[in-house]
């Protein structure tokens, strides 16, 4: 112990700089875990149907949307969300060749309804993560099996078992390293973000604009327009008759808007505009809290140790 203290006291300026940076990074990690823990603990869980507009916490099940499927690019897995990274060996280090994450929308469902999740800008934590090595083909072990069509349940089990064995044997072999994380259909989904309900009539169209649209449609049918509003039958729509037409068009616009509002609303959850955290995870709330609490504890503990080292280094310089 005394030997370590002597080494720290005589450390170079470069070592002092590195340890200081690490101490500050540890402090930031600690506060990051603390703030996320507070957000999860302080924001009450809401139901999709009764959630208020704004910053909310939702708990449900992840499901893909109808339409074009979301496919993880490395394993060809059909999923709700993915993140991937391809790295190439460069000496003793690894260099990122390609990386990305999906921004396609998917669904959170609970007992009361559905909410569309827009994952762009979200901090995503998932328990489905895999890393494997290869020679550049992009496949490894189980990932090869995931690209094959189903051969039947029994055969699939043997292929899956063989893929797992190959993946373990190949771990650490090859010049490329692949990492992939996914949220799968049916996973539990925990989400904190900005909740907003879109109604069928909420498309930026005012009543005045909707009335004008009705009048434009009627103008294209001049005979029908004269039949309805040409009360003196002179073949022309005068100012008084046109005002009656405008009143009728307004009533029609009100009816259309009322029908739109009776239709099903669309609930969405996305990145908060005020910069607050946007979190998505297929871990349960307790598991997510435990992860962030460990980040907080380890960050603050490392800061205390590294801060003491920095203080010792500085004490010998003044």
Describe the 3D structure.
The chain is an alpha+beta fold and 318 residues long. Helices cover 43% and strands 26% of the residues. The protein contains eight helices and 14 strands. The protein has helices at 2-9, 13-42, 142-146, 153-170, 207-219, 222-229, 239-262, 285-315, and strands at residues 45-46, 54-64, 70-71, 78-79, 81-90, 93-101, 106-110, 113-117, 123-125, 128-134, 176-183, 188-198, 266-270, 279-281. The strands form three sheets. A five-stranded mixed barrel has the order 2-7-8-13-12. It has a four-stranded antiparallel sheet with strand order 6-5-11-10. A hairpin with a 2-residue loop joins strand 5 (81-90) and strand 6 (93-101). The longest helix has 31 residues, at 285-315. The protein is elongated and about 110 Å long.
């Amino acid at each position: 112990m005394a030997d370590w203290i002597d080494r720290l006291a005589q450390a170079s300026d470069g070592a002092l700089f590195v340890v200081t940076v690490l101490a500050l990074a540890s402090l930031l990690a600690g506060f990051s875990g603390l703030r996320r823990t507070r957000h999860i603990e302080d924001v009450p869980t809401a139901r999709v149907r009764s959630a208020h507009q704004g910053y909310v916490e939702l708990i449900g099940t992840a499901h893909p949307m109808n339409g074009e499927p979301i496919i993880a690019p490395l394993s060809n897995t059909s999923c709700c969300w993915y993140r991937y990274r391809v790295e190439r060996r460069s000496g003793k280090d690894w260099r990122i060749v390609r990386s990305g994450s999906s921004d396609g929308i998917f669904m959170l469902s609970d007992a009361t309804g559905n909410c569309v999740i827009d994952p762009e800008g979200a901090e995503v934590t998932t328990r489905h993560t895999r890393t494997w090595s290869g020679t550049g083909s992009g496949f490894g072990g189980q990932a090869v099996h995931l690209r094959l069509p189903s051969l039947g349940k029994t055969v699939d089990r043997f292929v899956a078992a063989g893929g797992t064995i190959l993946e373990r044997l190949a771990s650490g072999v090859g010049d490329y390293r692949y990492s992939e994380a996914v949220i799968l259909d049916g996973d539990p989904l925990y989400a904190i973000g900005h909740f907003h309900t879109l109604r069928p009539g909420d498309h930026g169209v005012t009543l005045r604009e909707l009335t004008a649209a009705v009048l434009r449609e009627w103008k294209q049918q001049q005979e029908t327009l004269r039949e309805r509003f040409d009360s003196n039958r002179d073949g022309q729509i005068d100012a008084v008759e046109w005002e009656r037409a405008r009143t009728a068009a307004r009533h029609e616009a009100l009816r259309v808007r009322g029908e739109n509002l009776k239709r099903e609303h669309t609930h969405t959850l996305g990145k908060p505009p005020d910069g607050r955290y946007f979190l998505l995870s297929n871990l349960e709330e307790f598991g997510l809290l435990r992860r962030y609490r460990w980040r907080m504890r380890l960050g603050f503990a490392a800061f205390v140790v590294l801060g003491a080292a920095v203080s010792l280094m500085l004490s010998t310089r003044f």
